Every structure is written in C-alpha cells, then in structure tokens.
C-alpha cells in the first residue's frame, strides 16, 4: 500500500483508470487479457474499490509499433476486439477544454503526543490524527471560500460553501450561467467569466479555481461554558506543521460543492498520508515538507512532488528522490524537470504574451516559433529543445554594434541553461564575460572594458567557468563546407538540444536548428542573428530575416557563409542531471 499512497499523492484527484497498455510479448489474447487484469488491479489498489465501468486493454508490438485493443465491460465478461480506434491529435487541448483545475492550500498545526522512551506506534497515532482532521473538514461549521481565476478585468466569482452544502448530489450539473443560483448548484464553469484562450497547461499559465478552508466560529451554543480537563501523562507534545497544497481536476460542468466533497477533501487526506510516512520515518528531525506542482514536457496532467526544503535542493536525498520520480513518470534522466524552479506558478499569469519571459525582463523568447518553412524538400527538421531569450546588438544600453555579436550569442546560450533550470546565475554582461576570461588567464587585464571580439573558444571557456558546461567544437575550413556538417548538427539538436554558436571571420551567429534531406544533401540553417539593432518587435525580426532559415547558397546564388573564412562551431553539451 505505500506505493499506492505515493501514487495517489503524485497524481491529481479527478482522473480514473480506464485501461492499460502492455508493450512486448506476442500480442495473444492472453497478453491483452493480462493488460485488462493489471488495469483492474491498479484501480482497486489506488481507489480501494473494484472497477464499476468498462476497461480497455491494449497490446503494442515493440518491433512494429502495431497496437491491438480490446474492451471489457466488467470482470469475468468476454472482451470485444476494438475494430475502430479514434485518436485525439491534441489530447491536452481536449483535456482542458472539458475540464479545469482546483487548488487548495491548507496550513495545519497538528498536536502529536509522544512518549519519550517509545517511538513505536507513531504512524498509528498519526493516522488517527489525520482521520480526525479529515472528519473536521466535513464539519458543518467549516466553510470553503471558492474563488475563480483573476482575469484581465480584475473581477472574479467567489462563493462560500458550508459543510452542509457538501452533501449535494454530485450528479446534478449546474449549467445555468447566473449569479442567483444557490451555492450548492454552482458549476465550475461559472468561475470562468471570460473565454479561456489558452487551452493548455504550462508552467506559466496555470490558473485554477482556488479553494480556501476557513474554520468558522465555535459550534458551542451561546452561554455554554468551556471545560478543560487535565490528565497527567509521561508524554511530550510535538506540533506537526503541515503545508498542504493540492490540485484536483474536474469537468467544468461538475458542481463545485461536489468537487470539494469528492475531490478536494480526499485529495487533502491523500497528501496528509504521504506526509505522515515521511515525518514518521524522520520524527526526530525538523522536516519542512512542501508540495510543488509540475507539468513536465510530454505530460498533459500536473503531478505533485513533496520535498523536504530544510536543506534545499542540494541535499543528496533530494536528488535521489527526483531521480525516482523521473523513473516512475517515464521522464528522461538527463534534464531537470522536477526542480523547484520548474514548479507551476499561479495567479493571473494567463494574459502574459507567450514571447515574453516569466521574469520582469523585456527580452523576447523563442522568436523562431512562427517563422515560414525552410524550403528544403523532404527535409527533416531538428530544432533547439527548450526556450531561450533573444540577445542582440544594443541590448541593456550597451552599444556593441560591430564587435559584440559573439557576446550576444553567448548570452542567448546562457539564457537557455537558465530557462531549462540547469543554472540560476544571471546572464553575464559583456564586462562580466571579459572578467571571466581575465580570471582564467586567457586575456590580459586591459581586456576588461574593451571592444575586442571573442570567438568560439573563448565562449567555451566562459561556459565551463560559469556553468561547468563542456563544449564540442567543430572546425570548418570554409563556409562552403558547412552543409557537410548538417548531419552532425542534426544529431546535436536531437540529442543535446542546445543553441550552437557559429563564428567565422568577425561575424558570429546563433544556430537553433537545421532542416536536412539526407538523400539529396539539401539543407538549411535556422539562424538567430545577434546583429539586429532594432526594437524587440517580433514581426519586424521575423519579416526582416533576423531569425529565419538560411541556405548556404540561396536561389539567387548568394552565399550566406563566406567561402574564404574559417568557421568554428561551438556545440554546448547538455548536463546529465535531474
């Protein structure tokens, strides 16, 4: 059961198990039957009850990728082969079109009495305390403040639910969009007063319905005298501080009263049980447990991890926990997806322009997203993996026109490592870059404050010093030979995904992708040009070709890369870490 508790704490309440997919094996009837049995067993383990609805069993041939599906109405009944399968192209969009998130934060202080000479039975006493706390959440004198997301109009619906409202029939849907309906039949859709334009969940666009638990006035009748009893006992009081923070998923037509009763309160109980196991195993330590919510790339639903923040993320046990979570969720083990800095942010962020970073910076981000196609017939695009900020001439009030292009390329590369959470250092200024090169002995002190160029080798020194990042360097004798490196560059973007700096003569560019036809050898380079001197106008940048596909020789015979110049390509490597 410990694993079931952990899974319940990891996934948001509101989802159900509808089937299982078995990979490998011969694809016999026994294989798909085994998938059905595993789905039933997992559902019963997680929810404590047998499946009351039909399940889908699937088998995928690992060699061919062919999938066979069967449907079973209930345990013991014959399964039926699925002859027609409809695939959803955008499952994430469908998910958030029909549903929404609820979030509940609840700080608690729980009194736990411990005998000084006995540590046994802690979990049992803690469990009783949790059961009592969950029961109090359904008390008629507890109220729930339910608030919709804050929109650009700065107005949002809010209602108060009492404990008596939570017995409302969950199958009744409040579809009437009126503010005069009783609180019991208000549906979740009522809390979204504006059309939701962004039907996806990202780290920066998470706007749930907020649930706040309030303990109402004492339930004692007027005139009742409070009574205190004292029982001397050989025990010490340990106040357990819990910071609960849960997410739940619900249909937008589900009543909010039913959602609180059937999703929020059980979700709070799930999280308390997970925290109980952690605290009971370290009862002598002052653990500081804090839940964080994530939406890792490739997943359409959020997950919640509980970290002990007492020692921060540098503690070895935190690293091991993140690795275990990566394995459990099928996430890659070479990139940080579940660090605290990756956590979802909440509260009125949905109207931010997607080209803008989350911080207060005015820099554009990911400017290549809507550029036209490359023109390579039958090519395969290999692009940068992740977000970056576009640094170019004249940023930050520095007039580096004519000499600062490599500095700007380096700043874009560092921004990639920051935005992928590999580092929290600030993007270095020109002067700070120069200081690093002086400190490591590559340049004389007179270099600081100068307008001297730097190249790929200097960039590799700075990345190693500031980020501990290793780099691979490709040397090309002439611009004409760059297309010969397209296969190698494509592999870099597929395996590393980092921006590449191209330096030749006195010019430097940032490469963020290639489009390559291996059969014909035709290719194009996706160039982010740091020589741009205008304002951060995305349309102007894209239409002016400052970010766009470039061929070594265009259809008019003009060469983008110089034939008589030697080129260095700097390929920063992705750190292998979680």
TrEMBL record:
Q: Which SUPFAM superfamilies match?
A: Cysteine proteinases
Do the record's keywords include Cell cycle?
no
> A Pfam family name for this chain?
Peptidase_C78
UniProt keyword list:
Hydrolase, Protease, Thiol protease, Ubl conjugation pathway
Please list the GO biological process terms of this entry: proteolysis
Top-level division of the source organism's lineage = Eukaryota
Q: Which residues cross the membrane?
A: none
Molecular function terms in GO for this entry?
deUFMylase activity
Domain UFSP2 second, residue spans: 224-346
Q: Where is the UFSP1/2/DUB catalytic domain?
A: 381-570
Q: Return the similarity comment.
A: Belongs to the peptidase C78 family.
Q: Which PANTHER family match?
A: UFM1-SPECIFIC PROTEASE 2 (PTHR48153:SF2)
Name this polypeptide is given: Ufm1-specific protease
């Amino acid at each position: 059961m410990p694993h079931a508790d952990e899974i319940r704490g990891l996934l948001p309440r509101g989802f159900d198990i509808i089937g299982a997919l078995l990979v490998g094996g011969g694809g016999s009837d026994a294989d798909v039957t085994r998938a059905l049995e595993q789905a039933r067993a997992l559902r019963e383990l997680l929810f404590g009850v047998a499946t009351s609805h039909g399940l889908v069993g699937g088998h995928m041939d690992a060699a061919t990728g062919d999938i066979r599906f069967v449907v079973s109405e209930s345990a013991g009944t014959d399964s039926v082969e699925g002859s027609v399968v409809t695939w959803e192209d955008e499952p994430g969009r469908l998910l958030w079109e029909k549903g929404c998130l609820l979030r509940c934060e609840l700080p608690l202080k729980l009194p736990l009495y411990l005998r000084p000479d006995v540590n046994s039975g802690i979990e049992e006493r803690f469990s009783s305390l949790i059961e009592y706390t969950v029961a109090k959440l359904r008390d008629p004198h507890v109220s729930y403040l339910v608030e919709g997301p804050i929109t650009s109009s700065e107005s949002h619906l809010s209602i108060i639910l009492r404990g008596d409202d939570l017995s409302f029939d969950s199958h009744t849907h409040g579809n009437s969009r009126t503010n005069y309906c009783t609180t019991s039949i208000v549906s979740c859709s009522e809390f979204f007063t504006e059309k939701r334009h962004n039907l996806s969940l990202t780290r920066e666009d998470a706007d749930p319905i907020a649930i706040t638990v309030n303990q109402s006035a004492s339930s004692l009748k007027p005139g009742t005298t409070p009574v205190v009893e004292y029982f001397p006992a050989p025990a010490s009081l340990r106040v357990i501080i819990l910071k609960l923070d849960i997410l739940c998923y619900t249909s937008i037509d589900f009543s909010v009263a039913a959602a609180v009763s059937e999703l929020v309160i059980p979700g709070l109980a799930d999280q308390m049980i997970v925290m109980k196991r952690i605290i009971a195993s370290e009862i002598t330590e002052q653990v500081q447990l804090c839940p964080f919510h994530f939406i890792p790339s490739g997943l359409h639903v959020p997950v919640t991890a509980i970290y002990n923040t007492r020692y921060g993320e540098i503690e070895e046990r935190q690293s091991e926990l993140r690795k275990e979570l990566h394995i459990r969720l099928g996430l890659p083990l070479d990139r940080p997806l579940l660090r605290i800095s990756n956590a979802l942010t909440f509260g009125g962020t949905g109207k931010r322009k997607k080209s803008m970073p989350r911080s207060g910076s005015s820099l554009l981000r990911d400017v290549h997203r809507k550029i036209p196609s490359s023109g390579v017939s039958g090519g395969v695009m290999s692009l940068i993996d992740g977000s970056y900020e576009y640094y170019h001439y004249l940023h930050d009030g520095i007039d580096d026109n004519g000499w600062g292009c490599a500095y700007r390329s380096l700043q874009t590369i560092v921004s990639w490592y920051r935005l992928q959470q590999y580092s929290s250092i600030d993007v270095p200024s020109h002067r700070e870059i120069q200081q690093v090169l002086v400190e490591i002995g590559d340049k004389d002190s007179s270099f600081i404050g100068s307008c001297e160029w730097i190249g790929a080798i200097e960039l590799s020194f700075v990345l190693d010093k500031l980020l501990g990042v290793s780099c691979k360097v490709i040397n090309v004798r002439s611009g004409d030979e760059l297309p010969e490196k397209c296969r190698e560059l494509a592999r870099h973007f597929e395996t590393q995904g980092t921006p590449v700096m191209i330096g030749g003569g006195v010019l430097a560019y940032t490469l963020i992708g290639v489009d390559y036809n291996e059969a014909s050898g035709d290719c194009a380079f996706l160039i982010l040009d740091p020589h741009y001197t205008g304002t951060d106008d995305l349309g102007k940048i894209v239409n002016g070709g400052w970010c766009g596909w470039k061929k070594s020789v265009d259809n008019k015979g003009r060469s983008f890369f110089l034939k008589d110049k030697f080129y260095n390509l700097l390929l920063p490597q992705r750190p292998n870490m979680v």
